[in-house]
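Retry 2 of 3 after timeout on previous attempt. Resubmitting structure tokens to design endpoint.
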């Protein structure tokens, strides 16, 4: 059974919202307006499909975005290089342990390493974090600090991974990446003119 990672579609936002708000204490709840803001502004917003069903989603922002998360702000304050921030990843409970999370992280890293030298995220520490910390450690993340999140009383382990491919890509292409579909920005692809029928 293959896993397909692709850009989210607008009509799927209600399903994404339900996935998020059923994920438990490891993910902050969302409302429809905030999710819509993510849809409109996130640099990376992709879903996983398995057997034709929505199996999860991942949302990420580049360090130059106006994202207002306190954890994103922590990274902006503490890091001196550009970074790509994974705001949230959710895998449907029935799909956990089946490779969806690893497929998401491989896809997000492939996107990020063309544009950013560092990949960042956080793990909430107050609700049984060992599995999440082990997962991220196996992907090469390391803790670079902790953040006590205001207004939600949650302590987060702030994780970072250096992206070794970034320097070669940057030295070779600068900011002018080749014009191939899999390199395109999500918002650029959404704005691209659609071919008309002939």
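Retry 2 succeeded. Sequence:
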């Amino acid at each position: 059974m293959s896993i397909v990672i692709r850009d989210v579609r607008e009509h799927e936002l209600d399903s994404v919202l339900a996935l998020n708000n059923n994920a438990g204490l490891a993910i902050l709840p969302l409302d429809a307006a905030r999710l819509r803001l993510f849809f409109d502004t996130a640099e990376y917003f992709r879903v996983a499909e398995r057997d034709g069903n929505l199996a999860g989603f991942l949302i990420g922002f580049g360090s130059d975005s106006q994202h207002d998360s306190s954890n994103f702000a922590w990274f902006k304050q503490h890091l001196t290089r550009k970074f790509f921030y994974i705001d949230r990843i959710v895998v449907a409970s029935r799909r956990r342990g089946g490779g969806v999370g690893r497929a998401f992280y491989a896809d997000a890293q492939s996107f990020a390493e063309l544009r950013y030298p560092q990949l960042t995220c956080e793990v909430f520490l107050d609700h049984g974090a060992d599995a999440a910390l082990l997962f991220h450690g196996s992907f090469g993340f390391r803790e670079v600090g902790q953040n006590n999140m205001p207004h939600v009383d949650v302590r987060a382990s702030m994780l970072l991974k250096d992206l070794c491919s970034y320097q070669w890509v940057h030295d070779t292409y600068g900011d002018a990446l080749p014009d191939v579909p899999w390199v395109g920005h999500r918002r650029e692809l959404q704005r691209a003119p659609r071919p008309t029928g002939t």
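Attempt log closed. The radius of gyration is 17 Å.
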